[in-house]
Structure formats: C-alpha cells, structure tokens
Design a protein that fits this description.
The chain is 49% helix and 17% strand. The protein has 528 residues and is α+β, with helices and mostly antiparallel strands. The strands form six sheets. It has a five-stranded mixed beta sheet, with helices on both faces. A four-stranded antiparallel beta sheet has the order 11-14-13-18.
C-alpha cells in the first residue's frame, strides 16, 4: 500500500504540474475536463500493475534457474495452527475513516433524493425541473435541475441561470463528482484527490458559464445574477453542481478570457511521462525476477536444513571422491562484503554453496542437505559482480553436455527457455513415480554399460510437452556417457506423463530426473 501511495502520488503530482503550466486559466475547457479525469484514472490504476517486456533471456536468471533446477522437491511439513488475530491499528483506522466517508456520501445522496421525492417534477425547455421549497438556490444533480418553489412560481428564476444548470445536465457533470466522491471513500488519504475535485468543479462552472453566455449574450447581466446568488451565502448542496460555487473571481476572469491552452504540449508531456513510467516499472520487474529466483533457491535450501532428520535425503560422499576433492581444491567465488552463492560440480554431483558477509561457508548437496565442510578442500576467491556472473555462466557451460555435441546447446537452451521452469503443479508419471522407476529399471540394459563401478549414475533433463511426451532430452552433470545414452533411450520408450499445470492451464515444463542403478543387484535394490 505504501509503494502504491508513493507511485500514485508521484504521477498525480506530475499531471498536476502539467495542468498548471499548460492549461490552468485557459479556455480549452472540454479538453481540460477529460485531461483531469484521465490523469486520475491513469495515476490510480497503472501503479496497480507490473509490466514485463519481450526481451532476450536474462543470463543471470537463466543461470540461477539452472541452479534451482538441480535442487529436487523436498517434502514440506504442514502444521495446523490457529490463525492469529494480526489486524493492525492502521487497518482499523483505515476501515473506520472509509466507513465515515461512506456514511457521509450516502447521507448526502439521501438528502438530495428526499428533496426530489418531496418536490414537484416539471418538464421545461431547459430540461426536467424539481420544484421544492427545500431548495435554497438552484443546483443540478444527475438529470434534474432543482429550483426553489417560491422563485419558480413567481417567475423570478432567470433564463440565464437555467441555461447554466442545463449545461450541467447535458454535459453530465454529476458523473465526474460522483466518481471523485467514490474514490475518496477508498483513497481518502490521497491529498491530490481533494485538489483534483476542486479544479474539476471549477472547470464545470466555467463550462456552464460559457454555455449560458452563448445563449444569453449578456455578460454584465449574467455576472450580476451570480453576484446576487453569491451574496445570499446559501450553503452548497453536497454532490451537486451549484450556481454559486465559491470561485467568483476566477469565474469572472474566465468569462472574458480567450487564451487557449497548450493542448498538444500537454498531450506530448503526458505521454512522455506515461511511457517513461511504464519503462521504469518494467526494469524494476526484471530486477524483481532475479530476486524471485534467488529467493526460490534460498527457500529450498533453508527448508531442507529445517527438515526433521528422519525425512532428510542423504547422499554420503565416497572416500574416493573425498581424495579427489582434496587433490583438486574447489574455488568458491564470492563478492566482498556481500552474501554470495553459487554452485560447483564434481563428476555427477552438484553442490550449492553460500558464503556470508563474515566469510562463513555452508555447502549443500543437490537435495539441500548440509554437508560436512571437512569433506571439502576449498579456497575462497574475492571477485567483482561481473566476474562472479561470468564464473557462474562458465560453470553452467562446463556442466551441460548434449550428447558430446556442444554446438547444439544454444538451440536446446532456447527451447528450455520457452518452457516453464516453475509451475503450480509439476509434471508426473501417470502410473506414479515408484511404478515409473520400476519400469524404467526393467527396460534399462545394464549389460551394454562398460564400467568398473557397481553404481551407475545419470541425470536427465527434458521437457514434458502438453500431451505428456518427452522432448529435448539431455544428460547433465557428466558421469558415464554410455549410461547416460542408455538412460535417454529408455526414457524415450516410456509412457507419456501427466503434463504440468500453471494458472489453470496445461503447459510445457522442464524436468530433471536423477537415475542411480546398482549393477548385478536384485531388482528391489534399484535406487532413484
């Protein structure tokens, strides 16, 4: 709400300044009316929306999405709790004041309807009149002109005054007033609404004066009539358009003024402000997109750390891997003075690391489980933001193999960018994940794999199409090439999946599938 208030106030201020410079006290009255209304609508509605532009895939976002994609879903524990009563004092004040404005609006509307109900309806060449003794001085509301019963019967109501009120009826000025009053109920804290209401009502009077003078062509007599009503000091009926609206000096000046406003200059400056605002909001949204991906990664890692021990996934590091890590120190790049994050890969394993402002290092496996720092030999390297981005992109390129054909990676990356990485409902095997892995293992030909290891690992990344079929299957993270090729072959033969859904629509989505198979072991020892 605070950000919305700042944005809307800024826009209203700019449009107000444009009005003051180009249009105030000028005779472009019809244009001024619609300019003021359009300014209010734009300034109050546009800040409610964010704008995104069709731009090339952002490399930072692309890289961070890749990192996030390496962290599979972790179980979420849902704890039932009694909702807390967290209604703030500000909320109570807002609702109370809005209620007061609503009651005041309804009361003023009720008073006018009571006058209409008690008065006499008369049809004239000026329009429909409500003749009532409760009317002190002529005013207009919606399609009716209200006049005093005694004045009407004694024929003391001047035609010039009736022409003035007729203009309010024909030009639908009551709609503008009701629109502003309705906004005040919800946005009573917006100071510019009160200013805009005043200048809109002033403009209504200028328009009505102009209409009446065109009919009567007697300026001096018309000004004397207005002075008489103004001198009676009668209260103005709320929500109405009244002949003695309190801007007498300005009205007399405007009756003689012939200077036109700078219409095209106003349009140019207003469009410039609108386009500039939308452009800045688009840039802000793009920055928020990067922050959104970072938050998703952090949430997954934090969630894993807070999981009860009995449901944490485990992936112990082998002694062979520990020895290789010690012989090949890992370089952890960080930005000095900032909390930094990144990832590194070793063989077929991907690890995520965080370096805080005090150079404390935390390392997580691909399931988000904290690793023992003593199992890693690493060196910290301070780099600039540009260098950090480049290092992350280089790691992405080294970790992505497309069946030994790197030339095709750009095309596949493009296809992955077109698919959804984050969805409300992920794609899944129709027969269930356990049955899928069971069928996958049966179709996997381990005899075709040449290796001395007893454990074959592969990680497949692919797109699940809208019809549940698989496309753009690749093996990522290195590992045994023949095992990866066999895993790709088997996946291509598997039944179609249930596609992903996002915002109620079936969508194409990316999916990463880790595969581990023990060779020469009973079927029930297959791990996934």
């Amino acid at each position: 709400m605070v950000l919305y208030f700042i944005k809307s106030t800024f826009l209203l201020l700019i449009f107000c300044l444009i009005y003051k410079w180009n249009l105030e006290n000028k005779k472009s009255l019809q244009f001024i009316r619609y300019y003021l209304l359009a300014s209010i609508v734009f300034a109050l509605v546009v800040p409610l929306f964010n704008f995104q532009f069709l731009v090339p895939q952002n490399k930072i976002v692309e890289t961070k999405e890749y990192i996030f994609d390496q962290l599979p879903n972790i179980p979420v524990i849902i704890v039932d709790s009694v909702p807390e009563n967290n209604i703030s004092i500000l909320t109570i004040i807002y609702v109370f004041v809005s209620g007061v404005f609503l009651i005041r609006f309804l009361y003023n509307l009720f008073k006018i309807l009571q006058i209409k109900k008690s008065g006499k309806n008369v049809s004239t060449s000026f329009g429909k009149l409500i003749v009532s003794s409760k009317v002190a001085s002529p005013f207009t509301f919606c399609n009716f002109i209200y006049v005093n019963k005694t004045d009407w019967e004694s024929k003391s109501v001047s035609d010039a005054i009736l022409y003035h009120e007729q203009a309010h009826v024909e030009q639908k000025h009551s709609i503008d007033i009701l629109f502003i009053e309705g906004l005040k109920i919800v946005l009573w804290f917006q100071p510019f609404l009160y200013y805009f209401k005043r200048i809109i009502q002033e403009n209504h009077e200028y328009l009505a004066d102009e209409f009446s003078l065109q009919k009567t062509k007697n300026l001096k007599n018309y000004q004397e009539l207005i002075l008489n009503y103004y001198g009676n000091n009668q209260p103005i009926v709320a929500l109405s358009s009244s002949i003695h609206f309190n801007n007498l000096k300005k009205r007399f000046i405007m009756m003689k003024n012939t200077k036109k406003g700078k219409v095209w200059g106003t349009i140019f400056y207003s469009l410039t402000i609108a386009v500039t605002y939308v452009g800045f909001v688009g840039i802000e949204t793009k920055a928020a997109e990067i922050k959104k991906v970072e938050d998703k990664i952090s949430n997954v890692v934090e969630q894993a750390v807070n999981l009860p021990q009995e449901i944490k996934s485990t992936e112990p590091i082998s002694e062979e891997t520990k020895d290789e890590i010690k012989n090949n120190p890992i370089i952890l790049a960080y930005i000095k003075g900032e909390k930094s994050s990144g990832y590194f890969s070793h063989k077929d394993s991907v690890y995520f690391y965080v370096v805080d402002e005090n150079l404390k290092v935390s390392i997580y496996n691909r399931y988000g489980v904290v690793q023992n720092e003593k199992d890693f030999t690493y060196e910290l390297k301070a780099v600039s933001k540009e260098e950090k981005e480049k290092l992350t992109l280089d790691e992405l390129k080294r970790s992505t193999q497309v069946q030994n054909d790197y030339q095709d990676i750009k095309e596949i990356e493009k296809k992955y960018a077109e698919a959804h990485s984050f969805v409300e409902k992920k794609a899944a095997p129709r027969e269930g994940l356990q049955a899928f892995f069971h069928n996958f293992m049966r179709a996997f030909d381990s005899k075709s794999i040449t290796t001395n290891d007893t454990l074959i690992s592969a990680r497949l990344k692919f797109i699940v199409e809208k019809d549940g079929s698989f496309s753009n299957i690749i093996a990522v993270g290195g590992g045994n090439e023949t095992a990866a090729n066999e895993a790709i072959r088997v996946l291509q033969t598997m039944p179609k999946w249930q596609p992903a859904e996002n915002e109620g629509q079936v969508v194409r989505s990316t999916f990463t599938l880790p595969i581990k198979i023990k060779i020469n072991q009973p079927l029930n020892e297959v791990e996934n």
